[in-house]
């Protein structure tokens, strides 16, 4: 036991060292004349353009800390994670590289989450959990984004905690720690992306239903989890940032004489309105970008959303398409587009391998169903909300985890069957 703990500690230390080294190299390059068109010369890269806004907000909070207004500094950040950026600036200096330690810790914990998730799904497979964890953590675009000041690493970690908790409960484990993983994960995801509350609550309901049908031994833990999740959802308030609400009102309103005023219809209309608002926000943020897809599409009713769902699934899973791979990106140039193309080839291979996993795998059916519901629903919602391929590519990553696990296991099984022949 002591030897295993020592080995695990060495692995964690090694991963931290690798990430810190990469962050240092990326920061040095972003302060040099090398590839000057791709960074701001002050340590931040343009492929993570939001980092500049987060850096400015952190500097504002840092000023409050210096004035002794600690409470204000911890509560007035426009983004939840910028308070942690500001605290790292206060401890290590007002430089983006100061945040490298927190980024490295979150990255390593995310890799551990993936390892534990795969262990729940494939407990008898010795190497697949390690392969999936390493693949997830070292996926090039994700790894590079974790060296910047983005909130995505925190969001990804939160969602992974949710998946860790539910896969453990669906696998039949009865531990309160799994309950806490789900609750803390949803809270962390919500703090970074408020719109994630409803979809994550939805996949949690599906998990409870599956457990009631096939895994009743853990049902009590699932019900406790669901009660806590519903409590979080009850206090959920959707935030709209930088949104022209009057324009959206005229964009989504329908003839008042044809509107139903029952509660269900009003609730559906509100969700359609929120989805349109989110899509409009991304369209405004990336207006003029060459990588926008269907940027003029808006949703005025539920049938509009249903009609667009097949296209949303196609874009959600398979974009950027080959035609995008050889174009010049506005912030990433030809190099970034080529990297995306290389990664998409990898995803296509994993998608093919995952068919075997989901159709005829040895994993319990309830787990496979939940993983499919998780990936399909959340990828589709992301594609409905986001009209920019670059933003979608970054934000859907954690939702593709089941395809990565299924692809690795599916191809591994094919290799074993081929060897038996």
Automatic annotation (TrEMBL):
Highest taxon of source: Bacteria
Keywords: Membrane, Transmembrane, Transmembrane helix
Keyword Transit peptide set for record: no
Record flagged with keyword DNA-binding: no
Gene source species: Entotheonella factor
Classification of source organism: Bacteria, Pseudomonadati, Nitrospinota/Tectimicrobiota group, Candidatus Tectimicrobiota, Candidatus Entotheonellia
Residues spanning the membrane: 9-30, 97-118, 130-148, 154-171, 178-198, 218-235, 345-363, 369-393
Descriptive protein name: Glycosyltransferase RgtA/B/C/D-like domain-containing protein
